[in-house]
Protein 1
Amino acid sequence: MNNTLNSLNELASCTFPPIVKVEELTVGAKYKILQIKKISTRFGPCVVCRLEGKGDIFLPRRLEKDLNDDIITYLLAGQGSHLMYQGKKVISSKLPANIFEFEKIDYDETLQEQ
């Protein structure tokens, strides 16, 4: 509920987190996911992920169809999840793809951080 109130207050005050480019993420670093939402843009539907201490990042289009509401709920449930940028991988002779990994945060991990 508090997250919903924070989102509403951001809209009301016109303060939004910065848009983060993939190149601004550190390869292998864990970023806590605060929010995941599907949005429509002039380029079509996409998924935006809000990362703690960073801002919003647009995830690759290839994830949009498979990131359904059940998966989003699972990723945000409990202690939440991390998003890790794994770098680029050449998938064809023309286009490298940005590779990401999602990881659930377990209870023991949150105790170690305190």
Protein 2
Amino acid sequence: MADIVSSSASSQVTGSSSALSTSALASEQGKTSIADTVVAKIAGIAAREVSGVHALGGGTARAVGALRSRIPGGSTNHSQGVTVEVGERQAAVDVQLVAEYGVSIADLAAGIRRNVIGSIEGMTGLQVTEVNIEVQDVYVPSEDNDNDQDDSAPRVQ
């Protein structure tokens, strides 16, 4: 965050207004800064909207998220599985996810990129330089169904 402040301060000291006029977040009336957590939350919600995404985050993050959602009054962490770097005019996003079985991972990644970039750029005015996607697992629905059926049916008569 110190780099962001120092770069805008140096452009104001030298009298250069071209850096300020190129961003929708800065004008002669003031500067708007957007926290990393805001961009991460926007990216997380946008990624979850894409069909074929089962969950965001690695195994540990999903386990903590499941515990957190069961606590009364607990809230969903929309930025789970998302890390971002936010500069003065640009943002870079990393997404970790679990894909649903049968979905084309290449098409899924393209859809996530398109949705994340559109949401961040539309809501914040920041230019998204990259969206890196790491598929950590594939969700197979039959695994959950088999376990549920085994528990309810008697094994012997």
Protein 3
Amino acid sequence: MSKVTGPRREEVALLAGVSVPYYVRLEQGRAANVSDEVLGAIDWEDKARETVAFMRLDAGRHPGDKELATLIGELWMRSADFRRLWAEHDVRERSNGVVRVDHPLVGELVLDYQSLKVGDDPDQVLVTYLAEPGSPSDEGLRFLSSWHGDPSGPDPDTVGLDQRL
């Protein structure tokens, strides 16, 4: 894999007008009341860079994948941002990070994830997800797991989240 290119945490924080510790909390999904301006300055660029780097890795693993090649070609033709990021030649695994899931019943879940390779096949991975203990995401996951024995569960339109837990 190549070294990670692009701005460092300190540079991104400076460009977004936030402190480095605050930016780290944003990366970890632990910051509250984040403005749209800060999110626009930080999250899109980071996720786009990460996604393109993973796409480059996947293209190297599957050079005969015509659908992937077509997607890369379409993105190259339509997006200056994609061309810029692809030209960085960054190759990166998605081994850990934070994912946000908008669940229709419990709302947004902010989860840390860790990907672990299984055997010698790079396409076989075990992914674990973990919410910060005591967080709204943790409460939401606990509520969802309580449905294990009863798939019908409570009626989400008549029971508030605090009552469901």
